[in-house]
Amino acid sequence: MRILITNDDGINAPGLKVLSAIAEDLAGPEGEVWTVAPAFEQSGVAHCISYTHPTMIAQLGPRKYAAEGSPADCVLAGLHDVLKDSPPDLVLSGVNRGNNSAENALYSGTLGGAMEAALQGLTAIALSQYLGPDNALADDPFEAAAVHGAETVRQILRVDPGRIEGYRRFYNVNFPPVSAARVEGTVAAPQGLRRNTRFTVESTHSPSGRRFLWVRGGDQRAETDTGSDADMNIKGWITVTPMRADLTDHAALNDLKDAFS
């Protein structure tokens, strides 16, 4: 198996090393793992692409490249430049430092890379490690992902339908904020919504007196619907959420059709 990996935390991020080990396990001794990751951190860029300026790319080692762009840029570079003559069988994005459950999925560059791969017709999985009081300061905050990552991907690949009509499916995997031994199991879960919490901005001043704004995330343990991804992660479960790039609210279509008829 030939696997392309990327992330949004950057080419030197510890989570990318974890993902590389997961990919090597999946690829096996006869397989190949190729890395095309952002040269610098790209957290929060979602599915952004560098449409109005070029992306510099540099080879750092065997099958390892850094691109000055977003995760989606890196997937495009991997598919249409680095591996243009030998496309990958699978694209993995992550392992993100922090969860991409609930509304975080909409901002995630990790998900953006997987989404671009799906739009290009490939099987794609995003992997993220939830951080919390039990693992954030541990010697290995990524332990749950490192121990359970390869088997979780294998479980997904066993049931993935491959090419389907319309937008291709991709997967959002979140590992809970606990040690590997305390993981309860793996569950399919819908995307949740943390209630009464939002991204905000905080004002600060530089030493020169200029005013800047920092984006601040909301409470990552805020209440979500029972059984949703964030809820199950907090309870110690690995969650797998199937997604598609179709943003249509299909349930509302008939009402709108009636309104405009």
Structure at a glance:
The chain is α/β, with parallel strands linked by helices and 261 residues long.
Provide a descriptive summary of the structure in words.
Pfam families: SurE (PF01975). Belongs to the SurE nucleotidase family. By secondary structure, the chain is α/β, with parallel strands linked by helices. The chain has a single domain, classed as Survival protein SurE-like phosphatase/nucleotidase (Stationary-phase Survival Protein Sure Homolog, Chain: A), CATH 3.40.1210.10. Helix content is 29%, strand content 25%. It contains seven helices and eleven strands. The protein has a nine-stranded mixed sheet, sandwiched between helices. It has a two-stranded antiparallel ribbon with strand order 9-10. α1 links the parallel β1 and β2. α1 crosses α5 and α2 runs parallel beside α4. The longest helix is centred in the middle third of the chain and has 17 residues. The relative contact order is 0.14. The model has no long low-confidence stretch (mean pLDDT 97).
Instruction: Tell me the number of helical segments per DSSP (H or I, 4 or more residues long).
Output: 7
* CATH architecture level-2 label: 3-Layer(aba) Sandwich
- SSE run: EHEEEHEHHEHEEEEHEH
* Strand residue content: 15-25%
CATH topology: Stationary-phase Survival Protein Sure Homolog, Chain: A
Low-confidence stretches: none
Radius of gyration: 19 Å
Arithmetic mean pLDDT: 97
N-to-C CA distance: 51 Å
Main location: cytoplasm
Family: Belongs to the SurE nucleotidase family.
GO molecular function: 3'-nucleotidase activity; 5'-nucleotidase activity; exopolyphosphatase activity; metal ion binding; nucleotide binding
Keywords: Cytoplasm, Hydrolase, Metal-binding, Nucleotide-binding
